[in-house]
Model the fold of this input.
Amino acid sequence: MDDSASKPEAGAALPAAGAEPDSAAGAASLPGLRAWFAGYVLWMLALVGAARLAFDEYSAADTPAGARWLLPLGAFYLSLCNTLLPLPTAWVVLLLASHDVALFQSDAERIAAVALLGASATMMANLNEYHVLGYFLRSRLGGRIRQTHTYRWAVRWFDVAPFQTLALFAFLPIPVDFVRWLAILRRYPRGRFAAAYWIGRLPRYALLAGLSAALHLDAWEIALLQAALVVPLAGRWLLAAGRRSSRP
Done:
C-alpha cells in the first residue's frame, strides 16, 4: 500500500516545539480564556492598589524618599501597551529611572526595579494580546490566514528557533512585531511565549533605565527623545495613508 498520503508534503512547515499543528490550531478554541482575563484584571487592580498605598505613604511622610507610587502606575501603563493599544513605552522607562522621579537613591536599585517590573508588565500586555487575538483568530479568518503561502513561508522560518526569535524581537525596538502575531497564529505555548518576551524586554528596559540614570535625563529631554522615536514613524504612516487615499 502506498503510504505517501501519510507523509508530510515536501517543504511543508513542521510544528514548532510544543506548538499545535495548523489544522488543530485552526479548529480548536483557546482554553483558559476566562481564567486569563480574570487574572489580568486582578493584576491591574493590584497595581492600582499598590500605587494608592505607596501614594498614601508618600503623602504622609515628612521627608518622602521618592515618588515610588509612580512605579506601579508605570507598570499599569505598560500592561496596556501592545498592538491593540500601540502607545509609546520608552518614555515611561526613562522617566521612572530618572533622578527627577528618584524612586530610590541608588541608580542600581532604580534600574533593577524599573527593568524587572517593566518586563513583567510588558509580558502581561503581550499575553493579553495573545488571548484576545487568539480568540478572534479561532474563526475562519485564522484558518484562511494559515492557508496562505506567506504564512506557510513565515512558519518555516519561525519554527527554526521560535523562542530565540521571540526573545530577539522583544529586545529590538521594532514598532510592528509581526513575529508575535505569527506565534499567536501558530499557537506557540503561552508559557514559552511569556518567558521569551520577559527575557527579551528585561535587558532592553535595563539599558534604557541605565541610559536615563547615567545621563541624568530630565522630563523635557525624555519627552524629546520619545518624540524623536515616534514622530518619524507617525509621519511615515500618514504619508503612506495619504498615498493610498489618493489612488483612483
Remarks:
- Residues 33-234 form one domain.
